Amino acid sequence: MSLQRVLPTSDSSTHGARLRAWIRYHRILAIIALIVALFGIWLIVHLASKPKRAGPPPPVPVASAAVALGSIDVYYDALGTVTPVYTVTVASRVAGELTQVRYQEGQIVKKNDLLAVIDPRPYQAALLQSQGQLARDEAALKNARIDLVRYTNSFKEHAIPQQQLATQQAAVDQDEGTVRLDQGNLAAAQVNVDYTRIVSPIDGRVGLRNVDPGNIVPANGTTGIAVITQLQPITVIFTIAEDSLSDVVEQMNGARPLIVKALDRSKQKQLADGTLLTIDNQINTTTGTVRARASFPNTKNELFPNQFVNARLLVKTLTNVNLVPQAAIQRNNDAAFVYVIQADGTVKTQTIKILASEGEVSAATGVNAGQQLVTDGFDKLQDGSHVVVRKPGSKS
Length: 396
Hints:
alpha+beta
């Protein structure tokens, strides 16, 4: 019985030893696997931290255009106001009832066209009185002159004293003065009759009617019966900066007139062409500008009085200058510059000086005709950057 108890104890010890050995073995394997994993992680991090040798950057796709040699117009732009040459407020020169209005609102009238009629009867009656007064005093003057001749002959025969002859001469002189007074009164009465017919003093367009027939109008009223504005020709008044005045005056002294273009408020549409008439005789010290007036034929009534326009004065034309596309010009705080494409495919910045701009081109110094300039794709450009010129129509 004792032998059977010993044998099971021996088998249990062997099984425990094997279990402990198996656990130690797997622990060693786990440690080795952990070491291998840590080494792998270290290796990956180490390799990733090493800087890679970078290759040359790809060329930047750009658009380009060449510098051309040509001519460009130099304009001076300013704000202007359309101003009629003549604006007349037509008022009655005599008081009376307005019996007729002979024009339509907005009508184009010519000089001396009949516009309105004032009741002429009171003034015709005054004219008739002046005519009668003149006729009476002319008869008295005629009789006095006859008496003067008679007295002169009698004085030669010593029939009357000299004093009587002198008195008659004075009477003739008095009657002559009275006749001249009557003639003046008659002329004034005739003028008043003529003033009852109100005519246009200028060619132009009549505005809205101010007075209707049947109203009593005063003489020389401030409101007037109608306002007439000359539209053809018409002028535009604009300002010129004093810094540009010398160039304008120099060109005005030449033989050709200076061209002025009138554009609409947005500068998108040209309204009319005209010429510079004159400039004012003094500079406004507050604004540093001088006023100028340009004349426009306005044959199609393109311009309207008091209309706001943009005036473009053609000062001169630059010839044989380098023309640079506006799209190629870049600006910083100091100056304007362009990117010039070199023969080796790289770009170089070149500072330029802009002389004048018109439309899509500018006249500039600092570049030469034929040089290729970058016009699009500036984002990644700097001195020495390699570029490739895109084909027309390509976006990349």
